[in-house]
Specification:
The protein is α/β, with parallel strands linked by helices. It has helices spanning about 1-35, 35-40, 165-170, 205-225, 240-250, 280, 295, 305-335, 370-375, 380-405, and strands at about 45-50, 55-60, 65-70, 80-85, 95, 100-110, 110-120, 120-130, 140-145, 185-190, 225-230, 255-260, 270-275, 340-345, 360-365. It binds zinc ion.
């Protein structure tokens, strides 16, 4: 029996691991298929307690997650935290307490984004995840905010007392205050720069036209006050391609747009085209995966297979978003500037490789074509093209918000 039993146990264990991977795949699949309902409840509640020395924010969650700190509040009093694979479809918000003046949660790509307006000189001191315990059946993501310069010694781990039911009934203001402006982060990449001039036209270099277009688009987007715009370069400098992707990842970009000007052997070829990541090139995206990325840690089983499933899911969701934005962009350019035949194409451009950032590369026109070059060299016409880009960004986020609210 023993040997048989051992073998049985052996297979049972093998089956258990497999079951785990499948269950995890199933878990993910289940999660994915019930996205609308389960996702809406991803965040159960946001609670906080504390005073002007230390304030604790507790986010009740129905599943584990990994947080990514985009801003700790030191820079401009706004703290931004992303919780991977968590949805905040209903856009919760509230008045703060202690060092937190106001807070709002919205969706940023595949993550829930918590924005908090902090009291002057306050910043996020530490954050950690608490698993279900002590009769509490859900996860809690804890964020400690402290007044700085803080000589307040914050104890290492969250004292279990904080997870008592008493806190569970923490306050939520009756009527939520006016919403904090939920700015989407747009990263604009002016192609080439510095010792890399890009294509050469009769009137000048691609790098200069790309930068002028990027600055015009930034101004246009900031005018409405709805977007936080980050440039990969704002001067004639060379930035390695991989660093441009890192800028987008570090900024927690909701959208990445790389602006280029094309060139070809035939002078009559003209028009804009939009590139998104090709399937073939998707494999190279793994090089931009970082250890701290949520899908690298979100796999509860720690199973490589499950991690890869989560990576694939993330990348596929991002590719779908990139493709939907590209279609919207082509639609907005149509009628405002010439388009190349088959204007939405795919390629393996390095700048499109971030697995979690929806990204497109826009070839604005051909410097090898006199009409296109004249259009791109003229600030008014170039501005009109950037206007089409800005309108397509508005459309894209209006659609994203509409879908999330369903
Ligand atoms: Zn280029």
């Amino acid at each position: 029996m023993l040997s048989g039993a051992k073998k049985a146990i052996g297979t049972l264990r093998g089956r258990a691991v497999l079951a785990c991977a499948v269950a995890a795949a199933g878990f993910v699949a289940v999660a994915a298929s019930h996205a609308a309902t389960a996702a809406a409840a991803g965040i159960l509640k946001v609670r906080m307690g504390g005073d002007a020395v230390q304030t604790r924010v507790v986010i009740d969650l129905d599943h584990a997650t990994t947080g990514k700190l985009v801003a700790d509040g030191a820079a401009d009093g706004r703290a931004i935290l992303l919780l991977g694979d968590v949805s905040a479809a209903d856009g919760q918000q509230g008045v703060g307490q202690g060092l937190v003046k106001r807070w709002v949660v919205d969706q940023a790509g595949g993550a829930a984004r918590l924005q908090m307006e902090l009291a002057p000189a306050a910043r996020i001191k530490r954050r950690f995840l608490l698993p279900p315990a002590d009769g509490i059946d859900h996860y809690r993501y804890v964020v400690d905010v402290a007044a700085a310069p803080s000589d307040v010694k914050l104890t290492k781990a969250a004292p279990p007392a904080l997870a008592t039911p008493a806190l569970r009934t923490a306050f939520l203001p009756a009527k939520p205050p006016p919403m904090l402006s939920m700015k989407r982060t747009i990263v604009i990449d002016a192609g080439h720069g510095g010792h890399d001039p890009g294509a050469r036209g009769a009137q000048g270099f691609e790098k200069d036209i790309n930068l002028a277009a990027a600055l015009a688009l930034k101004a246009r987007l900031e005018r409405g006050g709805r977007y936080k715009v980050v440039l990969t370069r704002d001067a004639d400098v060379y930035i390695p391609l991989a660093d441009r992707v890192r800028v987008a990842q570090r900024a927690g970009a909701d959208l990445f747009i790389s602006l280029h000007s094309d060139s070809g052997p035939a002078a009559d070829v003209h028009g804009a085209s939009v590139y998104t990541l090709s399937d073939k090139a998707s494999l190279r995206a793994a090089k931009f995966v970082r250890r701290e990325d949520w899908f690298m840690k979100a796999s509860l089983t720690g199973d490589r297979g499950v991690r890869d499933i989560l990576f694939d899911l993330t990348q596929r969701a991002t590719k779908n978003r990139s493709a939907s934005f590209a279609e919207t962009l082509v639609g907005r350019i149509e009628g405002r500037a010439p388009l190349l035949r088959r204007s939405h194409r795919d390629a393996g451009f390095m700048v499109l490789l971030a697995p979690e950032v929806p990204a497109v590369l826009l070839e604005m026109g051909f410097l090898s074509n006199a009409t296109d070059e004249a259009m791109l060299s003229d600030p008014a016409q170039r501005g009109r093209l950037m206007g089409a880009v800005a309108d397509s960004i508005d459309d894209y986020f209006a659609e994203t918000t509409r879908l999330a609210a369903r």
